[in-house]
Amino acid sequence: MLKKIVTFGELMLRLAPDGYLRFVQANNYNVTYGGGESNVAVSLRNFGLNSIFVSKMPKNEIGQAGINFLRKYGVDTSFVVRGGDRVGIYFLEKGASQRASKVIYDRNHSSISTSSKEEFDWEKIFDNVSWFHFTGITPALGDNVAQICIDACKIAKKKKITVSCDLNYRNKLWSKEKAGKIMGDICKYVDVCIANEEDASDVFCINAKHTDISRGKVDHESYKDVAYELKKMFNFSKVAITLRSSISANDNRWAAMLYDGNDFFQSKEYLIHIVDRVGGGDSFASGLIYSLINNYSSKDAIEFAVAASCLKHTIEGDYNLISVDEVKKLVKGDASGRVQR
Amino acid sequence: MLKKIVTFGELMLRLAPDGYLRFVQANNYNVTYGGGESNVAVSLRNFGLNSIFVSKMPKNEIGQAGINFLRKYGVDTSFVVRGGDRVGIYFLEKGASQRASKVIYDRNHSSISTSSKEEFDWEKIFDNVSWFHFTGITPALGDNVAQICIDACKIAKKKKITVSCDLNYRNKLWSKEKAGKIMGDICKYVDVCIANEEDASDVFCINAKHTDISRGKVDHESYKDVAYELKKMFNFSKVAITLRSSISANDNRWAAMLYDGNDFFQSKEYLIHIVDRVGGGDSFASGLIYSLINNYSSKDAIEFAVAASCLKHTIEGDYNLISVDEVKKLVKGDASGRVQR
Amino acid sequence: MLKKIVTFGELMLRLAPDGYLRFVQANNYNVTYGGGESNVAVSLRNFGLNSIFVSKMPKNEIGQAGINFLRKYGVDTSFVVRGGDRVGIYFLEKGASQRASKVIYDRNHSSISTSSKEEFDWEKIFDNVSWFHFTGITPALGDNVAQICIDACKIAKKKKITVSCDLNYRNKLWSKEKAGKIMGDICKYVDVCIANEEDASDVFCINAKHTDISRGKVDHESYKDVAYELKKMFNFSKVAITLRSSISANDNRWAAMLYDGNDFFQSKEYLIHIVDRVGGGDSFASGLIYSLINNYSSKDAIEFAVAASCLKHTIEGDYNLISVDEVKKLVKGDASGRVQR
Amino acid sequence: MLKKIVTFGELMLRLAPDGYLRFVQANNYNVTYGGGESNVAVSLRNFGLNSIFVSKMPKNEIGQAGINFLRKYGVDTSFVVRGGDRVGIYFLEKGASQRASKVIYDRNHSSISTSSKEEFDWEKIFDNVSWFHFTGITPALGDNVAQICIDACKIAKKKKITVSCDLNYRNKLWSKEKAGKIMGDICKYVDVCIANEEDASDVFCINAKHTDISRGKVDHESYKDVAYELKKMFNFSKVAITLRSSISANDNRWAAMLYDGNDFFQSKEYLIHIVDRVGGGDSFASGLIYSLINNYSSKDAIEFAVAASCLKHTIEGDYNLISVDEVKKLVKGDASGRVQR
Amino acid sequence: MLKKIVTFGELMLRLAPDGYLRFVQANNYNVTYGGGESNVAVSLRNFGLNSIFVSKMPKNEIGQAGINFLRKYGVDTSFVVRGGDRVGIYFLEKGASQRASKVIYDRNHSSISTSSKEEFDWEKIFDNVSWFHFTGITPALGDNVAQICIDACKIAKKKKITVSCDLNYRNKLWSKEKAGKIMGDICKYVDVCIANEEDASDVFCINAKHTDISRGKVDHESYKDVAYELKKMFNFSKVAITLRSSISANDNRWAAMLYDGNDFFQSKEYLIHIVDRVGGGDSFASGLIYSLINNYSSKDAIEFAVAASCLKHTIEGDYNLISVDEVKKLVKGDASGRVQR
Amino acid sequence: MLKKIVTFGELMLRLAPDGYLRFVQANNYNVTYGGGESNVAVSLRNFGLNSIFVSKMPKNEIGQAGINFLRKYGVDTSFVVRGGDRVGIYFLEKGASQRASKVIYDRNHSSISTSSKEEFDWEKIFDNVSWFHFTGITPALGDNVAQICIDACKIAKKKKITVSCDLNYRNKLWSKEKAGKIMGDICKYVDVCIANEEDASDVFCINAKHTDISRGKVDHESYKDVAYELKKMFNFSKVAITLRSSISANDNRWAAMLYDGNDFFQSKEYLIHIVDRVGGGDSFASGLIYSLINNYSSKDAIEFAVAASCLKHTIEGDYNLISVDEVKKLVKGDASGRVQR
């Protein structure tokens, strides 16, 4: 039987102008749905695992369309609570060259942000489940949601389910102080901690040296210390950090490292010509979960996760619509992009 | 110098699937902006008058795009306050034949609904203005907005500005009871009252006989009584009522009547093949304001207003992008739609 | 627990130019998937039942996209066999006014047409299932598929599952003679027989009088005899016949009748302004199955089925994306298409 | 060997907003090419004849794209002279219901309008040709072009080629006086004269009684006199008049009559739901030429021509992409628009 | 009060195929409007200044749509004269890699090119204005327009308005000889002269050494002499030269220099991945005007102008829809294009 | 008189999602047609030669649209046999960065694959023809088609027509063994042999050293031996080999070599930013044929062919819509992609 993974978070309506049009030029928006935890659910389903996405969506057609969007990719949405007022929205303007991509959030008052404990029966949701994943965005949606997260974590731990969390700090949602406090509480239950090149600093004040992100300078070596500190702080079994060097809105370098408590494993670095980089971090988390749930070695796990997320950058939308075979082909070194006939 | 009209209300982002696609089928949304009062502002500007739209929009690009959308059509947006959290949204699915069009509102917490009295300097806004128009939607946005409406009305009256109000009842925004109470307060300041075939009943419990709207049956004669009652209740100088007989989502009959305190004037009735009927009522209000501000006779006024709004039904989006010449051609009887070369 | 329905047939890739463009004008095709039995599965899922679609699709992404298309609408695709060479295709050019819509089939050699008995474990598929539905298209795909149909029918009967069949004659797939012979064999297992205004004549040589379909003339009365003959021939428990009068490619009259062995029930007739009429018959079958599975009276059943399929004609694509509430509103007489806010 | 037809005129770039959008709303234009004589050339090629289009187009890619557009439909463009400054343009806004379609011409200074006699070797062009067709638009492009027309006519007559001319008066191009004078000169060479319900009046002051075109009122009977007068004036062998009754921009009645010097033949009248009516007259001319070149009886000729042009109204763009079989099916009475599978 | 800038020139309709399609492949054109001086007007309005665009446009909807396009971005169009025959058009095919972008002009006989002196009341237009800008394209439209330019310059000088001119040589509009003569007359009134890497050579025969533009080789050092010579020739207060090194249609290097009579200031050079390079020079002029009108130092001015125009290359259409904050962020060194949430 | 070239092969319907969308994301497909031999026919027609494409297409509109697609570009399609069941299809998903482009073929049972000898009258087809070209795909379609190829070759040789063949191995169509055998038979008739960096190895087991294609490593020097061996094996007059180094799906290096029996000529190598690389090899063949038919020197021929095919990579669709002038400009060294006004 296929392993089951649960993710919990917000599913947002994503509205994006065509191509590189600025918001003020747009006469139509491409309609997709996304959000950290749903992104992971879809990616894992594409890798062949069973994934369950837990959230709350309003009873109208805008909510239903979001659920349909997930169902299309095979995600189990039967535990999505229906109710509340609205679907959170994010507007995405794609940048190019020196012009940055821009995200405008309109997510306050969304259904999930007004959900309550009673709406989620974690005992039932976690039936036969192997892994539970969420990101730091979920608790940032409100104290009620943070509490639901903690509840879920407790039951997951009780059921010996592995818990992973991507710190994913969003300064529009909460202050660094509040994030530090609440994520500190939550991280006690977390086995696998995932962060990007900024999160550890933003949430837990753990800074990497020799790094100036807005100039595309990221010192990989110094992130060993960050990973070490993170692990020490919360006794994580594993810490993974993605390392993005942003050359321009079109071109990024992308790598990651994994600290398994014993050793540090640096992945290959890929130079990526970007189609859509939103969801890049989530695709990394998915790759990592997939490889860990399948007992890959640390070295193989980090290479799989980075290759998976490298490929995500070539796909429109939040979701990483990539198969295990495609990831493995890249891990083995075929980055030539030659036509497959 | 051109006459100036002020309208006050909400400008919403309108998101609509292509053609007749249902929401769950949509992969992109057409992006326009609209809302009763902005619709009137644009239509009057197209008729050659100066129009000022007053509202509040957030400082981000989604707000700016809305302002640009109005500026494109020449509306003066210099009194739009910038601030607040979000642009109200409405999702529009176009119906066909027996399937009804569907509107889903996501307008709570919009910038205008959180505006305060101090943000609008009506003395300045109303400088050299001839007419002030709003609809019943504006006060329905919240008690604060209702109060701003009343303030504006008072200053308008002081400055001898004609005030028109389209009752425009929206049951998603307030109860009939509350609407009745607050609109009752506001109507004291109103000179020209506009209603559709349902408003008088919904807001002031004045019912037309022999009318079953969901079966497309509208008894024109009985609306004389409705107009008479309305006028009596608030001492309006004029009452106009639009009369839509909905044969199907594609085909409507459309007429109106005007009661000027002395006589009742029934317009011609048009059979319309609909392109987009949203904003139909607003286009009627615009036609009426235009003809009254230009001292048309009651008969000519109602014919102009109905012809103008007939033509609106053939245009995509909320706005009636029709010229005075086009309206006059229809009033004179050329409804043949022959190619103009 | 929700009732479960199984349908069995081909899922085709549908490629259609935009709007009313002819094939030779098309620079892009809209991509959807459809086919009689999948259409029924989706419609029943929209009505709130569980539906399982059984078929065979190739292992490539064109096959996967078809499965995703069904999953999006909640259909259970876990019994779709993967293999074979290709997805059957149909090209659809939408007609207008006096110009007919045109379908070009490219469905030979599709995966399902090359499937074999061993690939379908009907005992397992029919676990806890209440209803089994297919159309005359499925056995027409080849002798192997016809045999699979008969197998399925036998097991269905054994398990006391109601079997319905829509005759759906396609002259591109087989001759009238062959259709008559094989459908004759199959109909022995069928409880509910559905036909359109031509099928009984094409398949079983049962003709309606006073009918000239290419002139839009359909004599409802004479179809009573057709229904009676059909029932007599195969001892169906119920026979339903849809009655389309084609005024033009844009406008059709649409009605149906149901013979339950005791009485004949004529539905209301709707005049429909067509958005997309493909799948109209399947939406009728869905409405009929839904109402019969829920024990509607014969009168209510035929009205529900006709109203449901009336609404289908207003929706792009093969699928009837309509809720039970929307059907009931129309049954109750609200055909006005007024905006639902 | 297939019969060859030559047409001579302007090929314009046609720029049209999507659907029913007004010009001021358009963010893109659909790009096609058209013009009376090219429309006829394409339609006749679709009917299976050989057609040669003669014109002048600039040497740039905008000119080449026009030629490619014709080549796509099989028209022989080898006699299109390359040179001059620009392609004439017409902007087309599609009307709906009571709103008229609108054409804005930007055709001055086009290559064809600056062409000279020497550029066209009619002896060579007319080699083995059976029929020569042009419309009143061509001579209206300038005195030079009128003179080229007359030259062509003279050589055509010398070679016993049948000459047809569609009067097609355009008031933006010349006055009624000038049209009357020049067309009077040209009509001496014309065998088959084609006109619409206004042309005879505009060009030759021959008026139909009981007719008010802007109210959709066209008295068919009175056009007998018009045809008779036309024939008498220029000794045409045949006169055909199309009779459009414009109910609205969406719905037209369409019929025609043919006077063959002996009798008057009235066609059936079709009620058409319009997709695109531009080129309607040209499609009639094509149908007439096809049927006369194939020696149809007068009755059959007029029915074929009207049915062909009825179908044109269902097709986007200037060109009538209809086969002889499709026309014949309609002539025989199948106007039901039923799906052809 | 905001500073006011006036620009004077042609507003063209820009028609461009989607993406990288060649003209002969295009089935639709994206519709925008642009032209050197309107580009500057929009960009300065985006920077927060008031800008007035002066031109002449026909009275039809194609002209109106152009005005609306400018109004959308807040430009004052009240001095655009309405009349004349047509809107000038340019067709734009976007190049890629080694394939060059292609512009086909169809701008002869445009309204502005047929305008006369009396139509522009420069005394009124220049009321309270700080800066007047135009490019060498405007006088190239015809002797009448050149004379209007000189008139405007004279009145601007009288009113102590700073005058800037971008030489912008277009060989399709006039010969180098004629350009040299007329621009020589005009440059006497110019304070700030702007040129690209070719203009000085084309118009005034001032050549840069070591430069082969078609091979992407541009010697920055040698342009000091060019700037020095230009200044000497006309006693400009400032000379700015943009320096584009074209690696391919997708990738350009972009820099500029400013000579303020005392010193030469070289900007940073940016490597740009191009979205749309049309309007690049105009966006530079806008940045320069903005920084000079705000009394930036020469160093800061050239950096602001180059950064602003660098960002233009990432935006579709002629207009630089960039804010002052975005430019400043790039000037400060953040070229990473990281997502702004 | 223009030289005539004949090509023979399959014309496929090409269905491709927009931009970089994956198949499972696509809601529409761009519709074009292509295939090796038609690609060469179009390219040569663009270079100004006459080209005749020989194939078999079904009689329906999907077949007609393919013929129209070729006619648009001026190719003579009068020898395309009409009949058979279907148009072969290929689905194309465009890759990006490390993600490969993907082609899914659905070409079995196409009309051409079921064609027979009698349908092609090569004596007539080859009348006045200078060159005959096909690729290894054509004989791979079936033994019947291979035999038709050989027949054509024999008659071509008899008529002293130069025969070129691009080996173009497709492993989905036949095994290497079978390809080797049949291509071995055919190559006896071939004068000019064209191959890519893999074909010689796949078909004739001639391997290049130091080459690992999936890592973008191609050793140009070692292909001299490959060319030498090929020539020796079949006594070709010329052997040309294209050398693609795939850096990523977006960026390729592209070069070629020509062995004329005396010397080896290496072309320049281009670094290409790819728009669409399908048809790259065919555009090389076209360039080579054009230059050889025009008696270019070996050096000039290979440079022309490589420059032509370099430019193809910048154009959407299979066809190389490039003029001789554009190729020559690149050959001369202008690769700057600067705007041509």
Features:
UDP-N-acetylmuramoyl-L-alanine:D-glutamate ligase; homohexamer; four-stranded mixed sheet; alpha/beta
Polypeptide structure, described:
Six copies of one chain form a homohexamer. The model of chain A has no long low-confidence stretch (mean pLDDT 96). In chain A, strands 1, 4, 9, 10, 11, 12, 13, 14 and 15 form a nine-stranded mixed beta sheet that branches. The first copy, chain A, has a single domain, classed as Ribokinase (UDP-N-acetylmuramoyl-L-alanine:D-glutamate ligase, 3-Layer(aba) Sandwich). With 341 residues, the first copy, chain A, is an alpha/beta fold. The two termini of chain A are 33 Å apart. The first copy, chain A, contains eleven helices and 15 strands. Chain A is globular and about 45 Å long. Chains C and F meet through β3, α2, β7 and β8 of C and β3, α2, β7 and β8 of F.
What is shown here, in short?
6 copies of one chain form a homohexamer. Chain A is an alpha/beta fold and 341 residues long. Chain A has 11 helices and 15 strands.
| Strands of chain A, total number | 15
- Form type of chain A: globular
Spans of chain A of at least 5 consecutive residues whose pLDDT stays below 50 are none
CATH architecture of chain A: 3-Layer(aba) Sandwich
Quick one: CATH superfamily of chain A?
Ribokinase
Structural class of chain A: alpha/beta
Count of helical stretches of chain A: 11
Can you tell me the CATH class of chain A? Alpha Beta
Task: Give the percentage of residues in beta strands of chain A.
Answer: 15-25%
The N- and C-terminal alpha carbons of chain A lie at a distance of: 33 Å
Q: Biggest interface, which chains? A: A-E, 31 and 27 residues
Helix-strand pattern of chain A, N to C?
EEEHEEHEEEHEHHEHEHHEEEEHHH
Alpha carbon gyration radius of chain A: 19 Å
**In CATH terms, what is the fold-level topology of chain A?**
UDP-N-acetylmuramoyl-L-alanine:D-glutamate ligase
**Domain count of chain A:** 1
